Amino acid sequence: MSGFRIGSMAVGLLVLMAAGCQNKVADENKRLWQQNRELQARLSESEARLRSAPDPNQLASMQQEIAARDQKIAELEASLRAPTANSDPGIAGIETSYDPAAGTMTVDLPGDVLFDSGKATLKESSKATLNKIVSALKSDYAGKQVYVDGHTDSDPINKTKGQWEDNLDLSANRAMAVARYLTSQGIDADIVAIRGFGEHHPKGNKAQSRRVEIVVQVK
Predict the structure, then answer these.
(1) Which one of 51, 154, 208, 216 is CB 3.0 to 4.6 Å from 203, fit for a cystine?
(2) pLDDT at position 11, please?
(3) Which of 97, 214, 91, 218 is nearest to 149 (CA)?
(4) What is the distance between the alpha carbons of residues 164 and 170, in angstroms, rounded to a whole number?
(5) CATH fold for domain 5-22+89-217
(6) How would you classify the pairing of strands 192-196 and 146-151?
(7) Chain mean pLDDT for the chain
(8) Model confidence over 144-167: pLDDT tens digits?
């Protein structure tokens, strides 16, 4: 399958999730901004008290308080300019999951977002989301191994059974379609592996089982 490595039992596909869920870095930044605003307000109060305080001891104490708060604000602003050290890998605006034991980040995209029923041709509407993933792979995970995993439900193929041997064949071709799109947008084909799992890795229900997963080896 031109330029892609194929796993032994399975042939690979990339995951994508249309639901936009806040990632941990965004949550942390929001919390830090809130602390920053609170400290700025308290700093303004302290400065006002400092201007009206006649007691030299009180002046010295308030000057120390202001200096400490200035330092804290500087630390918070520095934290906002960089990702939180302990945050899990992710893609802004895309729902992902992280497996620290395996060192992999997974993007899960429902099959009906990418493809029509029984088809392995990408919908035009899916490409905007795939482009976000491509951008993140280039900027944040350049050179990292990428697996594109195709999955289906357990229903036998009816509408397009003339095109595919079985669900495994369909899942592999869907994975190939996503992988080809990634490489067409500049992702190195040497780091993209295609895996097809058919119905053998089901999720909670049939709709969830029909999916493509993009698994990035981040560690």
Answers:
(1) 208
(2) 37
(3) 214
(4) 6
(5) 60s Ribosomal Protein L30; Chain: A; (3.30.1330)
(6) parallel
(7) 81
(8) 999 999 999 999 988 888 899 999
